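Lab meeting prep.
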Amino acid sequence: MKRKKRRVAIMGINPKRFDRSQIKFFAYLIPVTVIMGLPILFIVFNAFKPLDELLTYPPKFITLRPTLENFRNLIATSTNKAIPMSRYLFNSVLSTALVVFFSLAITVMAAYCMSKKQYKLKNTLFAVNEAALMFVSVAVAIPRYFIVSKLGLTDSFWAHVIPLLAMPVGLYLVKQFVDDLPDSMIEAARIDGADDYTILWRIVIPNIAPALATVAILAFQASWNSVEASNYFISNEALKSFSFYMTTLTANAGNTSAMVGQLSGNAVAGLGMQAAAVLIMFIPNLILFILLQSRVMNTMSHSGMK
């Protein structure tokens, strides 16, 4: 009898140790994990490949002769330019931090108003936000340029920040979480003398932390990987982003390769530096997701339950 009970306990929803019943799950999950992890490994291996392996066809997945030459060339290239690589990196770090902070602040306040406040055109405004989910950034590039130009933000650092603050998907996601907060809890806080900002800081934000973590990741990726402002709004090279700098490596390789002693005049010399820059761009995204993955999973599971 005791053995049967122990057997049932082991085969529960969250067994404490391995059981044969789990083999079928591992048989499915391990191949999926490997397939999903291959692009990450390819980015890492690619950054340490010498130039001849980068140009090998068919391409090899694992580098046979890992080298740091791509990173050395990247540093040497930036030190021989009027604008060093560190300047582009600083612009990206600062603009991304501002975008994440202000996006979270605007999104949580807008979601609170859309969910718990009563006013005219409330449903209409939310319907406009839902309609905005259908448009990709390319479709609104021209209207966005006119807005940035009219606001006087062209050739300004704020051109990196202001256009990315509106996040329709973030508002839609956070509002779902705020909708689940009981109105009685909000009313009780009002009776105790709390104003809207106190309710937002003490009650709403702690209860929707998983959704805010997801919005933070989306805002970080949108800003960190963006080249729109550098391409269309900014002509001052000292204000452009690191992602823009990365895209120019191959194009400028003919001029920079002589400085680093590789294949002078040949644009393919920039492929190694670009591979190294891709890894540098990817690492912050990976670290942020690892740190916030549990909250993101909570958001995904919550969004599927009604």
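Slide two material, second protein:
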Amino acid sequence: MKFANVSGRATLVIDGKAVDIEQASDGRIGSDPMVYSDLELHSELAELAASVDPAAWPTLDPATLGAPVPRPPKGFGVALNYRSHAIESDKDIPTEPHFFGKTENCVCGPYDEIVVPAGRDMIDYEAEMVIVFGRTCSKATEADAWSYLAGVTCGQDISDRGEQFRPPVKQFTIAKTYDTFGPTGPYLVTSDELDNRDGVGVQGRVDGDVVQDGNTDDLIFSVPALVAWLSRFITFRPGDLVWTGTPGGVGEARTPQLFLRHGMILETEVEGIGTMRNPVVER
């Protein structure tokens, strides 16, 4: 199934049509986009998707799309989780995952502006696949990890490198969670819709030029490994997000370096999900 936040309403996307979940279910399921993050509702949502006539619903207008999970209870990102990114960063391959927080305020939609604070001149991009938890998850195993996930979406882990590496202590969470520094979208897609959920293409483009082109089969710690590792000590709930890491090609590692500037367009494409297109503004 493919879900979307259309003008703040939970929506099933079928054949390019926007099926309003509350209206199609005669009110049995609410309109809040957070509802489709709950795996307890997925059987009913699948029945609904099978019963509706998409032709009776309006064509989806991309301009109406917001973040598919607009109010995640919590979020994490993973540092150096692609081999290509670890190599370009001149770092040893990690032996265990390294996480940082991404808080709700950073989340914005697939076509929203990314706001570069005035005077910050080292704002970087990181194209990612984001996983969405769908049920309470504690002490998962790698074997059952995918069963806890409502689906996946595209994401960007926008990062202020100047703040991230400012001495004396590195500030990953602060530098990566400014307002608008976590675009997600355009859809939440259940993993059964993916051709290969363990090998998903991830591409980032700046002003049309491909700057990142990777695949999740290059992850150092796979999605199941991340879920199992995190849930050892942290309980996850429906709507929690994890940005799973970024492939090589980030702006900081390029020669010359490439940072986001006013007027640029940042595109993020994840295979089987879709493409985000976020304009960059400085203010």
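Talking points for slide two:
The helical segments are 21-24, 42-51, 83-88, 161-164, 172-175, 223-230.
The chain has two domains: 2-65, 75-282.
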